[in-house]
Design a protein that fits this description.
The complex is a heterodimer of chains A (166) and B (97). By secondary structure, chain A is mostly helical. Chain A has helices at 2-13, 32-54, 60-91, 94-99, 103-119, 123-143, and strands at residues 17-19, 148-152, 160-164. The longest helix of chain A has 32 residues, at 60-91. The longest helix of chain B is centred in the first third of the chain and has 4 residues, at 28-31. Classes of the chains: A mainly alpha (166), B mainly beta (97).
Chain lengths: 166, 97
């Protein structure tokens, strides 16, 4: 009865509308791209070390191959940073940050390590990048209530990665 | 003090349906701050006047809102909202059926 009255009034005077709208946000976030990118950085460093050891001539072929390894290392370090930034900025919400107050510092550490591995050929820093992103992945999956497991990646450099235990 | 609004959209289904009316007011906030579970109307830049349920309140006093529909546009998309954006809490829900 009251609804019918209000509906009649709405037809006459247009009651203000309040939107309970839906959309289709993709909602697809996964730190695995960042993890694989960080692993690729380590792989490139290993290939550079190996190639350098077996190639005494510093000729143009050497320069060409080495510059390709470096280009891939650069690209993947930047990709790892970008992927983490997106999850941090778009997915993590205030309630997640309240529960994981170290998330900001961890993301900052990943950004710094991501830059350092571009600037240097220090494998130790690259493995630190992998581990920092693993730590981020652990937090990410915990926010979704999904258990994780650690397992060696099934390809070189076969470092441990954090995976969702589905 | 009181405001009559008509709902469009399905993000709060099944409790609040497209076409339902609600009366909102700020008076309840004189006695208790916005709290999880409250259904509120608020203005959001780029989206206009929205109605959602409060999921939580941040340490800065901002409010995270959520719809019951999985594809709801809410704080998962636009982040927490400021208290000043809230027009009122639903104090009466007039259903279609």
């Amino acid at each position: 009865m009251i609804y019918q009255i209000l509906n009649k009034i709405d037809q006459q005077v247009q009651i203000e509308k309040v939107k309970a709208h839906c959309d289709i946000p993709c909602g697809i976030y996964d730190p695995i791209i960042a993890q694989i990118s960080a692993l690729t950085v380590v792989r490139m460093l290993d290939l550079m070390t190996e190639f350098d050891a077996k190639t005494p001539d510093r000729n143009k072929d050497y320069m060409n191959s080495m510059s390709r390894y470096i280009a891939v290392k650069e690209e993947h370090a930047e990709r790892a940073k970008a992927e983490i930034r997106v999850i941090w900025g778009d997915y993590l919400k205030a309630q997640h940050l309240e529960k994981y107050p170290n998330a900001h510092a961890l993301v900052h550490k990943i950004m710094q390590l991501g830059s350092k591995v571009r600037q240097s050929t220090d494998r130790e820093q690259a493995t630190q990048l992998v581990e920092a992103i693993n730590e981020f992945a652990q937090i990410f999956w915990e926010t979704k209530g999904i258990a994780t497991k650690r397992a060696k990646a099934p390809y070189a450099p076969a470092l441990e990665l954090v995976y969702p235990a589905l | 003090m009181l405001k009559l609004l008509k709902i469009t959209g399905d993000s709060l289904t099944p409790e609040y349906q497209n076409g339902d009316f609600v009366i909102i007011s700020k008076i309840p906030f004189l006695f208790a701050p916005p709290s999880p579970g409250d259904v509120i109307a608020f203005r959001q830049v780029g989206y206009g006047l929205l109605i959602k349920r409060i999921e939580g309140v941040t340490q800065y006093g901002e409010v995270n809102v959520i719809g019951s529909h999985p594809e709801s546009i809410d704080s998962r998309v636009f982040g927490p909202i400021r208290r000043e954006s809230i027009l009122g809490k639903v104090i009466w829900h007039i259903q279609k059926g």
